[in-house]
Amino acid sequence: MSNVKFQIEFVLRSSPKLLYNYISTPSGLAEWFADNVNSRSEKFVFIWDDTEEIAHLLTKKQDRLVRFRWDEKEDDTFWEMKIEVDELTKDVSLIVTDFADDDDEAEESKMFWENQISELKHVIGS
């Protein structure tokens, strides 16, 4: 089965440092991404209602990037949130990279990310 990789860019009114706390810490992620998030070392447990999903933190670059892999995925897919600052305008963007099994799932995943990032914008007042 081939995976569909997609990227979505969101412009946010936030400092990279503040935004990084919301995408890299359990307490930050629990404010917008999931109902609750717990972590021990590189293992993050995301909780929605009665569902738990486990992801492992693959990469972390201070104020720039986090990359996770869902536990149930046995391929080389990941999901990533990268912070970029435009040199000219100083606009801060959050670029989400994710994978889906097919185009339909990719569309559903994009809608999921748009909803979650909308919540993030609300939380940070962007």
Notable traits:
single chain, 126 residues, Alpha-D-Glucose-1,6-Bisphosphate, Chain A, domain 4, seven-stranded antiparallel sheet, 3 helices
Topology at a glance:
Elements lengths: L3 E9 L3 H9 L1 H5 L5 E5 L2 E6 L2 E11 L3 E6 L8 E7 L6 E9 L2 H22 L2
Antiparallel strand pairs: 1-7, 2-3, 3-4, 4-5, 5-6, 6-7
User: Any guess at the CATH architecture?
Assistant: 2-Layer Sandwich
Strand residue percentage? 35-45%
Fourth-tier CATH superfamily name: START domain
Number of continuous helical runs:
3
Q: Give the rounded overall mean pLDDT.
A: 94
Cα end-to-end separation: 38 Å
CATH class call: Alpha Beta
Structural class: alpha+beta
**Which regions contain 5 or more consecutive residues with pLDDT less than 50?**
none
Specify the overall morphology: globular
| Element string (H = helix, E = strand) | EHHEEEEEEH
What is the number of strand segments?
Answer: 7
Widest β-sheet, arrangement of strands:
1-7-6-5-4-3-2
Major sheet summary line: 7 strands, antiparallel
* Number of separate domains: 1
